[in-house]
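To whoever is on call:

I kicked off a structure prediction for a single chain this morning and the downstream step that reads the tokens threw a length-mismatch warning. I double-checked the sequence; it's 110 residues and nothing unusual in it as far as I can see. Pasting both halves so you can look.
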Amino acid sequence: SLTLYNTGTLAANANTITIAGNLTGTGNLLFTSGTLDISGDYSNTGTFTCGTGTVNYKGVNQQVKATTYNVLNTSGSETKTMLTSQPLSLQAVKQVSCVIYHGSHVPQFL
């Protein structure tokens, strides 16, 4: 698990950073490059800036952060749920399945 209370930056470059649990807290997260695997819920209330990286939600019944993703992949069983009313924007999509969008918001493909 990872809990942020201040602004943090993750740069995986050509590597993968794995968060086996939940990503929580109130701090802002800048993910600049590489691959970020999240197996738990993303319930952090700060901003999430994805940069040029790939984000993989790999868990079961996950909470997904509503933000602009460069590349977003989902896997695992059950559903992925956005908990905010913010729109989800995608720069590139490899695999998105079982995503439940909050309210009337639908993904924006850029």
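Update from on-call: the warning came from a stale cache, not from the record. Cleared it. Sanity check on the structure: The CA atoms of residues 70 and 91 lie 5 Å apart.
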